[in-house]
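tool_call predict_complex ligand=iron/sulfur cluster
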Amino acid sequence: MIPRRERRSVTVGSVRIGGGAPVVVQSMTNTDTRDVDMTVEQVHRLEMAGCEMVRVAVPDHQAASSLYAIKERIQIPLVADIHFDYRLALEALDQGVDKIRFNPGNIGKWNRVEEIVGRAKERGVPLRIGVNAGSLEKHLLSEDGLPTAGALAGSALHHADLVEEMGYGEIVLSAKASDVPMTIEANRLLAERSDYPLHLGITEAGLPPAGVIRSAVGLGVLLEEGIGDTIRVSLTADPVEEVVAAYEILKSLELRQHGPILISCPTCGRVQIDVLRIARQVQERIQGIDVPLRIAVMGCVVNGPGEARQADVGVAGGRGVGVIFRKGEVVRKVKEAHLVEALMDEVEEMISNPD
Ligand code: SF4
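tool_result ok
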């Protein structure tokens, strides 16, 4: 496994970030936080998908006063996202949230930041200092008025120093931009210059699949360098898709296991079964399975059996039929119409008898 850079450990509710803990998957609701039922329903769907920590926007007093009711009905730690108004952070802390995400640079007077830090310290609630390229303080912008990686990292570290001077070190840092190279560079700087756990994300990454790709590239580079202790994939989509994408990124680097990995061939002129239909049906049927299996769907016998053999369970197409492999052994040959059923029988059998 790719080793993580040494970081201090911060505990958010029941979840540890940094300190050698597995990279934590988080997401953010896109419901109106004031609507407790809708928000809880969405968090439940995120929990089902494997989300380990959830952030909600707290734009006003009514949203802040809904946080206790939300927290009471969910299992995973709740993070309050605060901008500008320090009173919302104080109220969120009084409501019992597990972490506050804010940018001290947009809170205004420093004594207000002190109040937030003091209350968080009293309650033992960690703070994420989240700096975004879009809201960087004006004096840190380049001569052209643009954000830079150095300014992003510098701003996050400067604020962390000030919070430390107030006697509080339960800090997670993030430096995000929609620009992938800038985000990579800013986080390399943060990793070099501090030992705070790092929250990674490409902000406003956009619609899938482009947003997923941009996130995978940015986060993938950093994670491969051992940088990053928690990730959020920001998509213009149902947040459940963020969680699915986050796990795919972590699984592809073998940093987390989360359910099966489906391998399927792109198909070509040699294809002998309907790989697209079969792979889609298998993908649907394996949702919710929590066992880390490798499942292969291959279109023909040229590369098919080789790949399928390396999987725990696999199928390689022949003319109107498919050969089912299990741990490298051919177990049966079935008609194409019955392939999905047969493959899923093998998957279920393998889950109940792993050896
Ligand atoms: S497994 Fe067969 S059908 Fe699929 S891409 Fe490879 S050669 Fe083509």
